[in-house]
């Protein structure tokens, strides 16, 4: 925890003065203004190509801040996209079945195979009686018989191939192809998301308070490249005694002013500490119990941007009977 000593040095006299001259001036507590800041960095190790902002630049939410790259990003993305396209095409082809041209070719092959089988069967039928009479040698008959069996096998294979083409791929194969296509598409989407992550954009509107990278530098994953402050959302942490604490609640409105300025700025209590800070070792006496202080965070909505980080601000506290 960072302990700010400046507000506490100022707070002691203010609490004492508040008790001594309660009727002349309201009790105050002093804090130091801070700004809500957002650090933006790459989600993976990367090298900065271009830094598009300077410190002090005003940015809007969505503005591009830094462009990063990795050595294999372009090639890996292209390969993943090519695999996704091929897998999707294969899945669509299986889902839609064979094209008319493929069916026509299979039918033509079947007709040719049937013709060869019929011709071989006719040759066998013609030679078998001759072989029985001894007019044809046994070797010639065996050759014709073997050719007939081969032709019949080719006919049957062509008939089965046509049936498979007409029926289409089995359900299991179609599901497997569809799953493979989804996986390839997810991989491609992942690489595209990685490429998008290497383009740092401003998550909020504000002012660039710190530029932490230059072109050519390599940052680790999560390392801050740009810090964006929100001047319209300043806040301060004040410390109040245990006697003031019961009068304060989260959401309460408080007024505050800068040194030498009579303008009142409206603030809202966003958080109250649940335990005392700067507690004495043993709190027994009234004075020691008065030293118990509790942190209170006060947020301001400042459209004028007059409240700047590091400036002390005095917060007016409700009056107490103590």
Structure description:
The strands form two sheets. The chain has a six-stranded antiparallel beta barrel. A four-stranded antiparallel β-sheet has the order 5-4-2-7. The chain has two domains: 175 residues, Efflux pump adaptor protein, beta barrel domain (Elongation Factor Tu (Ef-tu), domain 3, Beta Barrel), CATH 2.40.30.170; 120 residues. It contains six helices and twelve strands. Helix 2 runs antiparallel to helix 5. It is rod-shaped and about 135 Å long. The two termini are 31 Å apart. It is α+β, with helices and mostly antiparallel strands and 322 residues long. The N terminus is likely disordered. Strand 9 and strand 10 form a beta hairpin.
Summarize the structure.
This protein has 322 residues and is of the alpha+beta class. It contains 6 helices and 12 strands.
Order of helices and strands: HEEEEHHHHEEEEEEHEE
Outline: rod-shaped
State the CATH architecture of the largest domain.
Beta Barrel
Helix content: 40-55%
Low-confidence stretches: 1-24
* CATH-defined superfamily of the largest domain: Efflux pump adaptor protein, beta barrel domain
CATH fold descriptor of the largest domain: Elongation Factor Tu (Ef-tu), domain 3
Tell me the name of the CATH class of the largest domain: Mainly Beta
Q: Number of folding domains?
A: 2
Q: Please state how the strands of the largest beta sheet are arranged side by side.
A: 1-8-11-10-9-12
Structural class: alpha+beta
Main sheet: strands, sense, barrel: 6 strands, antiparallel, barrel
Q: What is the assembly state of the chains in this entry?
A: single chain
**Beginning-to-end CA distance, first to last residue:** 31 Å
The average pLDDT value, as a whole number, equals 79
Count of DSSP E strands? 12
